[in-house]
Specification:
424 residues; alpha+beta; 6-stranded mixed sheet; 4-stranded antiparallel sheet; 9 helices; 27% helix; globular
Length: 424
């Protein structure tokens, strides 16, 4: 019997996916749960396993096709399932590789079925993929002059955005890479040593998202200086205990807890715009920006206001670990109602982050530095002391958040951190 393999619901906010890479060919015999196809969405990439064993008789959606949820991807004849064990040796199902390695192969256009793994039990490593890529595309002699990149039309996202904004007449947005009105972007002229780096699919999605956010949301940035003396002492007193439990007690955890509490008290920041209205969201789902092999991702801590410091610490550690190892899922990256960003290991004073749509705001931490501050002594006299200080910057959508609400929210976050008002 022919069985339709359809596009699954890959996250609550995902309505379609792109066929990135087929791991089988028509005629291949697979077992249940063998990898069939790589699916890419605006959230993350995922691998779709075979729902049944059998023979792949027809691939309906080619690589690059955008398929709606429940749309047919391929067809499997389950009558061939009984012979799958005998025939699977030459299929893709024996390919042992982590999601990170599979994405690496996808970026390098390497078919994992042609790669011999050097890892444990024949597992394919990133080095194996790199070697296969260099063999498949031997280094060519250097050209006499750099080849200019092809002229690129505006991306579909930019064109759609321009059309949507212009439907009512009035404002016509600039076109990325082209210009605006009488201004035209200068043509790139190659020079020796220049390196043209094409956008990856992930970078293109990020670029379109950021452009959309800046055009649609009138960003306002407000900054607060926070004395972290009491919170730092609290962290120092308990970090060894958390470390023994296998979880680092970071300043990010305290900021996340303070943010979740402040959002509950200032609901206009936990909101989103829908057409000619906005929604004050009941649940606080906090997005935390973390690094991954594919770049920055924003996994979500569900109902963050219901968690204390310990719960937030465990959630951040779990999400960061799975992001680094390529095990993050699309559901992990969906549904944030507000986001917190960090400056990373190479820190800087502060910065105004771009809002993660469709959120109404994003809070960005700055570098923690020791500074001379004025404190009030027991006798009421002002004295100078050296305390750890951090700037935090709130970017908010001025369509639905006014300055009073934004400042109240940021003040409350600062107050909680300065008082060290946490149970650890």
């Amino acid at each position: 019997m022919l069985i339709d393999v359809t596009m699954p619901q890959l996250g609550e906010s995902v309505s379609e996916g792109t066929v990135a890479k087929w791991r089988v060919r028509e005629g291949d015999v697979v077992k249940k749960d063998d990898p069939l196809v790589e699916i890419a969405t605006d959230k993350a990439d995922s691998e779709l396993p075979a729902p049944h064993g059998g023979k792949v008789v027809r691939i309906v959606a080619p690589e690059g096709a955008v398929v709606a949820v429940k749309g047919v991807l391929c067809q499997i004849d389950d009558a061939a399932a009984a012979s799958a064990e005998e025939k699977v040796a030459d299929g893709a199902s024996r390919t042992l590789a982590s999601p990170t390695v599979r994405r690496e192969a996808l970026e390098r256009d390497v078919d994992l079925r042609d790669v011999k793994g050097s890892g444990e039990r024949g597992r394919i490593t990133r080095e194996d993929v790199a070697r296969a890529s260099s063999v498949a595309t031997p280094e060519a002699p250097a050209p006499l002059a750099p080849t200019p990149p092809p002229k690129r039309s505006p991306s579909p996202a930019a064109a759609s955005l321009a059309e949507a904004i212009n439907q009512g007449g009035g404002f016509v947005p600039p076109i990325p890479g082209v210009g605006y009105g009488s201004f035209k972007v200068p043509v790139y002229r190659p020079h020796d040593g220049d390196q043209v780096v094409p956008f990856t699919r992930r970078r293109r999605i990020t670029a379109d998202h950021m452009t959309y956010s800046k055009v649609v949301s009138p960003h306002v940035v407000t900054v607060a200086e926070v004395d972290l003396h009491k919170t730092s002492k609290l962290r120092d007193a308990h970090k060894d205990r958390y470390k023994k439990d296998g979880h680092p007690l970071t300043m990010l955890a305290f900021v996340a807890v303070a943010t979740a509490r402040a959002l509950r008290e200032n609901p206009s920041l936990n909101a989103r715009v829908i057409e000619d209205a906005f929604v004050l969201l009941k649940d606080i789902h906090l997005g935390i920006a973390v690094d991954s092999p594919d770049g920055l991702v924003v996994p979500v801590i569900r109902r963050a206001d219901e968690l204390g410091v310990r719960g937030i610490v465990r959630a951040i550690d779990d999400l960061a670990t799975r992001a680094r190892t390529g095990k993050i899922t699309i559901d992990d990256l969906s549904g944030a109602s507000f986001s917190v960003a960090t400056p990373g290991l190479k820190r800087n004073l502060f910065g105004g982050a771009i809002i993660n749509q469709p959120n109404a705001g994003i809070l960005r931490m700055g570098e923690i530095q020791k500074r001379v501050v004025v404190v009030e002594g027991p006798d009421g006299e002002d004295t100078m002391a050296i305390h750890p200080v951090m700037y935090i910057a709130l970017s908010y959508d001025h369509r639905i958040v006014d300055g009073v609400a934004a400042n109240s929210f940021l003040f409350r976050v600062s107050e909680l951190l300065e008082k060290g008002d946490f149970e650890v």
